[in-house]
C-alpha cells in the first residue's frame, strides 16, 4: 500500500477547548493546572452573540472558540479555514430538553399560537450544531448525535468518517450537557453543565497548513460485551497503553498492566452523558501535551453497548490510519 492514500485518510487531533465551571483548559482534567481564571458560566454565558439561545448552545459555543484558537484556526477576524470543507458534529443527550419542555408547556396551557417564533428553532435536535456552524462559518455537514453513554465517542468517530469520506478537511466535534431543572427532574441527578470541543483534521490538511498534531486517531471499537470490546480495542497495543479514561468505575482487565493510569472523569465532573467521549479526548490531548507517553484508551458503556477509542501520541505514525472494529466481527470501515 502506498503512503499517499494512507496519509489522505489519516486523522489527527489539532485542538481542544473546554467550557466547564472552574476549569481553565484541558490540562485541568488531569490535574495539570495552568495559570488563568477558570470558566465561570455566570459571567461567560452572556453577550449579544448568546441572546435567544438555550444553555446547551451557549456552553457549546463557548467551548468552540478556545478549541479553534488552540488549533491555530482562529484569527483576529474569526476562523481561518475553508468553511466549505469544514463540518460540525455535536453530541448531547439532554441538550435542548429545556427548550422543548418550555414550548410544550406553553402550548398545553394556552395554544400553539402562543409559542414564540423566535425561539422555536431551539426545539430542533440540530439547533446546537446549527448555531456552531452559523457562528463560525462552517458550511460543511452538520450532524447531531443523541446516543446515550457512547455518544461522545461516536461523535468523534462520525467526525473521523466525514474526513475519511472526503466530506471535510476539518471537523469541529462538540460534546455538551447542560444542568437545569428539566434535566435534573428527568435524570434525578446533576450533570456536567459544560461542554468540550475537539478539532479533527486530515493529517494532510494539518501538515499543509503547519498545524500542530496533538494526537493521532487509531480506531474506534464497539460491541455488546464490554470486556471483549476492551480486549479488541487494546489488541497488540495493550503493552503500550499509558492512559485509560473510563466512563465509570471499571475493574482493570488482566491484559492491561498495573502501570496504566486509570482516570474516571465523572468522579470529578459528575454525569457527563453525551459529552463524556469528547471530554475524554480533551484529557488525552492534555496527557500528550504534558509529555505523557504510551497509547491512550477512552471507554464508555451502558446496558448492551460499549465503545472504546484508541489514540496514538503525536509523533506516532500508525500502520492503520483509522478504523472501526466491532468486537464480535472485525470489519474495516469504508
From TrEMBL:
<keyword id="KW-0808">Transferase</keyword>
<dbReference type="GO" id="GO:0006633">
    <property type="term" value="P:fatty acid biosynthetic process"/>
</dbReference>
<dbReference type="InterPro" id="IPR016039">
    <property type="entry name" value="Thiolase-like"/>
</dbReference>
<feature type="domain" description="Beta-ketoacyl synthase-like N-terminal">
    <location>
        <begin position="38"/>
        <end position="177"/>
    </location>
</feature>
<dbReference type="InterPro" id="IPR000794">
    <property type="entry name" value="Beta-ketoacyl_synthase"/>
</dbReference>
<protein>
    <recommendedName>
        <fullName>Beta-ketoacyl synthase-like N-terminal domain-containing protein</fullName>
    </recommendedName>
</protein>
<dbReference type="Pfam" id="PF00109">
    <property type="entry name" value="ketoacyl-synt"/>
</dbReference>
<dbReference type="InterPro" id="IPR014030">
    <property type="entry name" value="Ketoacyl_synth_N"/>
</dbReference>
<dbReference type="GO" id="GO:0004315">
    <property type="term" value="F:3-oxoacyl-[acyl-carrier-protein] synthase activity"/>
</dbReference>
